[in-house]
Recover the amino acids of this structure.
């Protein structure tokens, strides 16, 4: 499934909004800012990679104005800065004012589905990240959010729907994220892809569960930009030339020594045969 073939003019709303997590009720003249980034914080704090790897250095939060990542910057102490990039900053599909390979990370929560060409948008998000940098994206899952109806009844500005992978979808605008990732080419290293349904209640009737304080109804995709050398080698470059402190060297060698000592002390007994009373 390729987004350029799926997103036709008849499927687009007149105005291409891309502020994330915004639901409009035109009948009652209401605007409801969803808090999908906020919902993700406790989950992300439980995974040390967000603080140690993903949100490190300088980055942007695309479409984050209603619920910006910057509100929680203190939870990610290696984050130097994060700029909220929204409508007034330019088109999120192109990021024309941002030079290639100038950022350490890109974050976007529920914005990609608002772009006319998600494939081009994701390619440009990867373009502005330095080698070794990360792109962290959350999108609605078509089954958890749209729930069999498109155009979406819960957010009329959604241009496409997303799934991790299906051979057949009910949605005429469905995009397999695995296909979308493949289009990014050799520089994209997939780190994580997860359906965020831990607080989703499958027993409820059809209902927009993002209105609740707990359900995310989405898919989180994290990928890393490979360096030219990594692409050439066909593998991740490890710290082979990194000098270790004496303390670290002593402890790592002790682990090896301990393992050898255990093996040497039990040479006469085959493993997993001792069934004597504990």
């Amino acid at each position: 499934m390729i987004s350029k073939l799926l997103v036709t003019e008849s499927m687009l709303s007149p105005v291409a909004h891309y502020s994330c997590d915004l639901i409009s009720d035109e009948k009652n003249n209401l605007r409801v800012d969803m808090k999908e980034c906020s919902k993700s914080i406790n989950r992300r704090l439980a995974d040390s990679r967000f603080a140690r790897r993903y949100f490190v250095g300088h980055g942007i939060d695309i479409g984050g104005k209603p619920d910006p990542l910057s509100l929680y910057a203190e939870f990610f102490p290696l984050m130097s800065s994060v700029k909220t990039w929204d409508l007034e900053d330019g088109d999120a599909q192109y990021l024309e004012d941002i030079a290639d390979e100038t950022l350490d990370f890109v974050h976007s929560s529920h914005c990609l589905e608002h772009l006319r060409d998600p494939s081009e948008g994701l390619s440009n998000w990867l373009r502005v990240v330095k080698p070794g940098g990360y792109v962290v994206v959350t999108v609605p899952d078509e089954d958890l959010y749209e729930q069999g109806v498109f155009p979406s009844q819960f957010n009329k500005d959604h241009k496409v729907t997303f799934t991790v992978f299906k051979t057949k979808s009910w949605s005429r605008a469905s995009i397999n994220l695995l296909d979308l990732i493949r289009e990014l080419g050799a520089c994209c290293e997939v780190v994580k892809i997860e359906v965020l349904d831990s607080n989703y209640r499958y027993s409820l009737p059809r209902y927009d569960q993002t209105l609740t304080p707990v359900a995310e109804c989405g898919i989180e995709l994290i990928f890393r930009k490979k360096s030219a050398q990594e692409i050439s080698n066909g593998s991740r470059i490890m710290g082979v030339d990194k000098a270790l402190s004496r303390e670290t060297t002593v402890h790592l060698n002790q682990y090896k020594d301990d393992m050898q000592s255990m093996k040497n002390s039990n040479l006469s007994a085959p493993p997993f045969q001792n069934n004597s009373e504990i």
In short: The longest strand covers residues 129-140. DSSP finds seven helices and ten strands in the chain.
